[in-house]
Amino acid sequence: MADSVEVIEAKEKMNDKDFYFEIVKTMPTLIEWANDEIRDDKEIILNAVQVDGGALEFASDRLKDDKEVLIKAVAQSGWTCCYASERLKADKDVLLTATKNDGQVLYFASKELRDDKDVVMQAVANKPIILKYASFRLRDDKDIAITAVKKGKNKVIEYISPRLRTDEDIKAILAE
């Protein structure tokens, strides 16, 4: 009998906004168990992603397309950019915020942002090997190549353009 009462109480909490408003401040991924209405509540989701950006996975599609929510999530955990709507994967502000934490997110960036020097430079400065996802134009940019080679040495040389592989400055960095 006690077990069924506990189950009923647990099910009631799954629909209780006040419960989720507080619980996500310490256990943000519990939002996974909330109903659709709660997973679409911007205030609750903002509380959750400020603690653990990974809680974004359980937000509604509408909130995965909300720039304020995305900025909070990727500022906490850059990799959560993977949950962003396609529109926000093409938003420079979102990607710049995400690449501060995790250069790997260039992988999720739109084609246009893979060709944006600011985004690529920040991503490469954070994770040099991610150069392989930059546009060919930027893989031939000497500033980006130098940043990548200084941090990644021989691990990134295959991703810079053939022209820059023979550049004297690049060769000098590799020789250090």
Tell me about this structure.
Helices cover 53% and strands 0% of the residues. It is mostly helical. The protein has 2 domains: 89 residues, no CATH class; 62 residues, no CATH class. The N and C termini lie far apart (73 Å).
Low-pLDDT parts are none
Biggest beta-sheet profile? none
Terminal CA distance reads 73 Å
SSE pattern, N- to C-terminal: HHHHHHHHHHHH
Strand content: under 5%
Helix content: 40-55%
Helix/strand class: mainly alpha
Rounded to the nearest angstrom, the radius of gyration is: 21 Å
User: Outline, from the CA principal axes?
Assistant: elongated
Mean pLDDT: 91
Number of beta-strand segments? 0
Task: Lay out the secondary structure.
Elements: H1 2-13, H2 17-23, H3 36-39, H4 42-51, H5 67-76, H6 86-89, H7 92-101, H8 117-126, H9 136-139, H10 142-152, H11 162-165, H12 168-175
Helix pairs in contact: 2-4, 4-5, 5-7, 7-8, 8-10, 10-12
Give a nutshell description of this structure.
This protein has 12 helices and no strands.
